[in-house]
Amino acid sequence: TDVQFNNFNAFDDAKDGEGQGEEKVHVRVQQRNGRKCITTVAGLADDLDMKRICKAFKKNFSCNGAVQKDDEAGEVIQLSGDQRTNVQTFLVDQEICLKDS
């Protein structure tokens, strides 16, 4: 029952950014007013058709959504409601992204 702490360095995978070729996909929830929230999906590859992915999200999750242009993140998909788990399983099932362990 030996317990060790501080073995994990969260910045190990961020070294040099170049040469890895793997970008992280960020799925976030932003709180609006009251109980309302939106889910944003940023960091998807540029060669993907964002409109088709957004359309598939809307159809599969029964929610509204839009593709927004962002200066820093490029194209960002916005979905109404908390769709984090749905987005993750969809992206992994469709082999758009790999699941981070």
Provide structural commentary.
This protein has 101 residues and is an alpha+beta fold. Helix content is 22%, strand content 25%. The protein has helices spanning 50-61, 84-93, and strands at residues 26-31, 37-42, 65-70, 74-80. Strands 1-2-4-3 form a four-stranded antiparallel beta sheet, covered by helices on one side. The longest helix is centred in the middle third of the chain and has 12 residues, at 50-61. The radius of gyration is 16 Å and the shape is globular. The two termini are 24 Å apart. The model is unreliable at 16-20 (pLDDT under 50).
Order of helices and strands: EEHEEH
How many H/I helices?
Answer: 2
Q: Give the structural class.
A: alpha+beta
Describe the largest sheet: 4 strands, antiparallel
